[in-house]
Amino acid sequence: MPFALLKYGLNGDFPFEKDADLPPPVSLKKRYDVVIIGGGGHGVATAYYLAKYHGITNVAVLEKGYLGGGNTARNTAVIRSNYLTSDGVKFYSESVKLFQNLSNEFDFNIMYSKRGQLTLAHTDAAIRGFRQRTEVNKHFGGKTELIGPKEIKELVPTLNMNPGHQPVLAGLWHMDGATARHDAVAWGYAKGATQRGVELHQLTEVTDVVVENGKVTAVKAKQGSVDHIIECGVVVQAVAGHSSLLAEKAGFRLPITTYPLQAMVTQPVKPFLDPLVSSPAFHCYVQQTGRGELVFGGGSDPYPLYNSRSTLELKEELLAHAVELFPFMANLKLMRQWTGLTDMTSDYSPIMGESPVQNYYLDAGWGTWGFKATPICGKTMAELVATGKTPSLIKPFGAERFNDFRQVNEMGATAASH
Amino acid sequence: MNNPAPVFRDRLPEPMGLMLERQKTVEFIFEGERITGIKGDTLGSALLANQQWVWSRSFKYHRPRGPLTLAGHDANSLVQLPNEPNALADRVPAIDGLDVTGQNVNGSVKKDKDAVLNHFGRFMPVGFYYRAFYKPKGVWDWWEKQIRVKAGLGIADLKFKPEYYDKAFLHHDLVVVGSGPAGMMAALKAADAGADVLLLEEHTLLGGSLAYSEFSDCNNPEQLRQELMAKVRQHANITVMTEAVCNAWFTDNWLPVLQGKRLYKVRAKQCIMVTGAYEQHVVFRGNDIPGVIFSSAVMRLMKLYAVKPGERAAVLTGNEDGYLTALMLNRQGIQLCAVIDMRQASELSHTEKNLVDQLHQKGVQVRFGQTVYEAKGSQRLEFIEVRAITSPGEVSASLETIPCDLLCMSAGYMPAYQLICQAGGQLSYDDQRAAFSLRNLPDNLYIAGSVNGIHRLSAVMKDGERAAIEALNALELSDEAVPDVFCDQKVNFHWPIFKHPKGKDFVDFDEDLQVKDIVNATRMGYRDIQLVKRFSTVGMGPSQGRHSALPTARLVAKATQRTVSETGVTTARPPLTPEKLAYMAGRGFDPYRLTSMHYRHLELGAKMIPAGLWMRPAFYPKEGQRLTGSAASPLLLQARNIRNACIENESLHVRTKVGLIDVSTLGGIELRGPDAAELMNRIYTFGFLKQPVGKTRYAVLTNEQGVVIDDGVACRFDEDHFYVTATTTGVDNVYRLMTFWNTQWQLDVDITNVSSAYAAVNLAGPDSRKVLEGLTDLDLSREGFPYLACREGFLNVPGCEHKIPARFLRVGFVGELGYELHVPSRYGEVLWDILMAAGQPFDIKPFGVETQRLLRLEKGHIIIGQDTDGMSHPSEVSLGWAVSKKKPYFNGCRAVDIVMKRPQTRKLVGFRLSAEYLVQNQKPEEGHIVLSDTGSDSSITGNVTSCEYSPTANAIIGMAYVGIEQSEEGGQFPIRVDGGSVVMASVVSLPFYDKEQTRQEA
Amino acid sequence: MKVMTCPLNGPRNINEFVFGGEVTPLPDLQAPDQAWAEHTFYSYNGTGVVREWWFHSASGYWFVAERDRTTDQIIKTYDPSELAADIRTAMLDVDRKMFGVERKTEEVAP
């Protein structure tokens, strides 16, 4: 038993106020230097790094629901950096590095679990793409290899190497691939941010953004039936799944279409699957959580919608593929199916940086891959807010790229791998 | 248990035991011991009849756990079957020979070595794993492994072979989910009015609570059940499905129903949810000890399985059901040592007072205003400690400790809300009734009975009819006024939670969560019910909060000074009950398409590969070169060598003699009408208005972002008739795009996707004309049928009068004299045969897709999707010549203009490696990256898209994206190959082969 | 599964249909690049009832659906010929402008 647990057992009064991870609710102030809209992982991470590295603590994070209750709660916690473009790999590699130290940084265990991620190729076209990703990753120091069936079988003995009419030909073995307790990432950031003076306001919905002379000056928010006007110097919007709706309040459109994305989980069974396994051709990926559950994810829903209902057809398709890849899973039991909303951009890359409104910064367009970027996105967005200068890591991801049809060439590295 | 007891000795007499066939016994193994039961028993009822009350161990503390609901609703009853973890012992029928063990056990369920964890509970406060195991940095890696092996409940059988499961569809006017009294009344009422009704029952017996429960307003529920059942069974308009679980609600009343090994997908015009209510437990220390059980479970055990539940029973209640249970126990001769009502005597209704009197007459005294404060016993309940309730949740000093082996709990109900909430219904809490009720039902969905908060049997039956009338009105099968149904029976005790300083007062049995765990989660800052769930894991176990949702809502509300309604419960997601993946997977569906020449390729020993949905021959290995299955990975050296040898031979054959390739998978779109040319012109980048009849033209398609997404050959067979090919995987998209625009333009043209209507081959090589001569009456001469011409004609079938209608295209994809022949699909195999026969004198050989890729590479032709990526615009792939600069519009034209006027950053070029690399075997592979320079801080400027050894050129050739500054002909650029070494490639002009184009124009 | 009523084929499961984007007329061909960027990348993507293109795969038929982006309720579906006059005129207008004139292109050397 680790020493850290002894103190709880020996003290019947646990938890004391000092043991609380999150402070009790406080009243909204009239003005903040920075208002962050969205209390998901990205929002609280931005607040955390603002306080930690830039000494900016007069910050309010406004959350419509509860802390980390949007896509932070709903994603399948894939951490990886095996992207296709130099810009993508550089950015996500930094994120992976930050993730690895978060538990100790927060004094809160996010249960970072380095498992490796294996993406399966069933066609020579897929092998071409994987080889390119391997080489780009290696170029930036990532641990990624293109491996053959024999090595795949060794890594995942339970995998059916001949699913359907598309045998497994090769695999993209990304040794840096990992998972973590996704909720804990948001909680850890919130804990660290609030300890440094940041205010987290849950159940606080932003109803309007006040823009004067092209510059944001305040936001209007609702707590229950009470309306507030909150003045602010800077606004960061980090509301995955609702980015277009908030941007509309600020008076502009985003190059985003919002689609539901579904995932599902089985009952827990004893561990047998270490790596995160994904097959883009089968629109299916699976990982076994620390609790022993198998989490499945697949492709997005086929049409845009702001609704987190589940569908049977997605479940049937995804699980049929899962059973083709792992036939014995036919006998496992599905426990839960859920849905999140994803803001898709046409180039499968995020939007970070300035917006048409002065002092209003965007953290949006995260589609199905936002969780893994939480630390680096928070860190770079904080730098942008504090310095007013766009950090070079996120320069390629500005919304302005769409204005002259200059997209990030990242298609294919994102589908069904998240 | 070595001497199995006679089966009947301990069973109760009939009419108890509705489920049993008493003449037949069954025997199975539990934890290595032989258990004898009666046919009709579940594993659980047989275990209880054999005094086996410990079925599994709990998730965290490894406490012994036994039955709770006996309805398949709790996680305590999860056992391990040989190839199935997490099987419900109270639902799985007892079958001869089945080998069953407990779960989550280190040792046996009786002696679990991990039970020591029970004593360390105080060192494991809620969320303890967030607070430990990571200091000093690096130790987590070790701890994680230790913790992981303790996780998980059952063991998955990794060798399990899937069984046959399938799917079916049903369509009904009305689906009634649940066959309790309200459900049967609803079904009958609707069926009488002419509706086509499907009645679903999850259990074996129809009747819901009528089958096992007792009612204060019905003396003989079994008789009532039989009467209703007879009517239902006989009704022509009612289809009944038992052991059929409606496992979710999806949009538009789309209901997945699991029965046997089949998933029924049921479409209901109207749906009545009569899903009942889940009995709720009382929270006190030791409330999980085997022998502490729901009242409804004890009734089920006696009525359905005739199992005597104990010798000395106590009842803890807050409603009339506890009294009905006590009376039933008394009637079955079980000693009642205590009947404890948490309420004061003054709170009892008239009906309840009558029941108390009945108990008095039988010599049983009732205690009011008291509760069980603690239950004790190691593997089975031994004592209960009774205390007086002084205020909600607070108790007096100990009053008495009573020995007993059974405690029945009746603290109230939670509506079985999951399906209704999935449909959009919302739960709200009524403080007066201390109960949740459902509101905001969507259209075409109704609820009735106890899920609707109505518990008195007579009212329940009326409520079923009421719901049926609503559904009938919506179906326009009646216009009856909807009656009001009223029921004032209060079933929920307002605060059945008694926190104990030493804990083990379980709120959630699945996850071993106690009162303090829930309260402490809120004190640590996780105040929202969703955060409480996520932090403490309450409700996340196999029973998904059926029993923990209500006490958790109450506790969180109190701890955060909010109302229970404000606090709410967490979202009810599908499925309702854990469902095997097999149901969703069904028989498996792996569609793929075969060309009409497919079997000829197999006969010739082709190595087949998937191309989109199609299967295509990659190449044709000779005997002794064949590889099977995944061993044919292109990463394996042996496989590579065979492949390379095959495509070298095949390509040389095409270059020197004649070859035949199946290109049936090409997409084909037929455009007919006066505006056919106009449509072509508005879709593709090139000009098509002036394309002469009898000529083909290369057609490039860009999307609205200016990216090249498809290409093909446009044949003009007549002024008003085009036939345009498209890529195998792109054709559906091209067709959609054409029809989309023409919906708006309304040009006079018919657009038809004829991809699968045509089979096609490419006959290529210097001898191809000779092969075709004699097979057609067309003039095949260079002048009569020149390069890029197309013809419609016929192909003679030797020895047969019949002629095959065919389209002849002189195209040059592989760079030799050649003809593409497109014929109706049914002639595909004949086409192959006659060409192979006619080609025999010229040594014709088939060639595959991989060979074709080499041949076209030698000619410098790009393949969309291989040499283009998601951003390739026409200039980058040197297709600027195929983009009309003059015509007003084509699909994506403005985007193309925008991206092409921007300074270009990269370009697809041809490259060649010097001979030394051939010797060193350092061939770049497709996907290898191009570097800016060979320095250590080089950047990535591009990637290899195609690369092969060309036997014709005797060199490694390829195409690659390079930085625009590297694209000059004659320049060199570095490619990083396998192993990290760098090779230098020289930019060369395309094509590599036959620059003068004399061969294809021959 | 959700049911969608095809104007040509009646009520069908929604997986028979393909979503085709919001109904927005193309910008004028002479419109600035920014207008084309907005048309191409910046859809409305808001809540409420949105007019959308849908395609019935089996019959190759495009039609218009008015759908609530929050509830997923399909308010109505109809043949494109019934599109509101303003949208239709805008389309035809562009149609006329687009196909009647020569396009100006700037060639920039790489």
Features:
heterotrimer; A: 418 residues; alpha/beta; FAD/NAD(P)-binding domain; D-Amino Acid Oxidase, Chain A, domain 2; 2 domains; eight-stranded mixed beta sheet; 28% helix; 26% strand; globular; B: 1002 residues; alpha+beta; Ubiquitin-like (UB roll); seven-stranded mixed beta sheet; six-stranded mixed beta sheet; elongated; disordered N terminus
The CATH homologous superfamily of the largest domain in chain A corresponds to: FAD/NAD(P)-binding domain
* Beta-strand content estimate of chain A: 25-35%
The pLDDT mean of chain B sits at: 93
Second rung of CATH, namely the architecture of the largest domain in chain A: 3-Layer(bba) Sandwich
Mean pLDDT of chain A: 93
Q: Give the name of the CATH architecture of the largest domain in chain B.
A: 2-Layer Sandwich
Uncertain stretches of 5 or more adjacent residues of chain B = 1-6
Could you please say which CATH topology of the largest domain in chain A applies here? FAD/NAD(P)-binding domain
- Classify the fold: give the CATH topology of the largest domain in chain B: Gyrase A, domain 2
Chain oligomer state: heterotrimer
Q: What would you say this structure looks like, in words?
A:
The complex is a heterotrimer of chains A (418), B (1002) and C (110). By secondary structure, chain A is of the alpha/beta class. In chain A, 28% of the residues lie in helices and 26% in strands. Chain A is built from eleven helices and 18 strands. In chain A, strand 9 (204-212) and strand 10 form a beta hairpin. In chain A, helix 2 runs parallel beside helix 8 (182-195) and helix 4 (86-100) packs across helix 11. Chain A is globular and about 65 Å long. Chain A starts with a helix and ends in a 31-residue tail after the last helix. Helix content of chain B is 23%, strand content 27%. Chain B contains 23 helices and 48 strands. In chain B, the strands form 13 sheets. In chain B, strands 8, 9, 10, 11, 12, 13 and 26 form a seven-stranded mixed beta sheet that branches. A six-stranded mixed beta sheet of chain B has the order 39-40-41-38-32-42, with helices on both faces. In chain B, strands 43-46-45-44-47-48 form a six-stranded antiparallel barrel. In chain B, helix 6 links the parallel strand 16 (312-317) and strand 17 (335-341). Chain C has a single domain (3-100), classed as Folate-binding superfamily (Folate-binding fold), CATH 3.30.2270.10. Chain C has 110 residues and is of the alpha+beta class. In chain C, 23% of the residues lie in helices and 32% in strands. In chain C, strand 4 and strand 5 (61-68) form a beta hairpin. Chain C has helices at 33-41, 85-100, and strands spanning 3-6, 10-13, 17-22, 49-56, 61-68, 74-78. Chain C has a four-stranded antiparallel beta sheet, with no helix packed on it. At the A-B interface, helix 1, strand 3, helix 6, helix 8 and helix 10 of A face strand 6, helix 2, helix 11, strand 29 and helix 14 of B. Strand 16 of chain A pairs antiparallel with strand 29 of chain B, so a sheet runs across the interface.
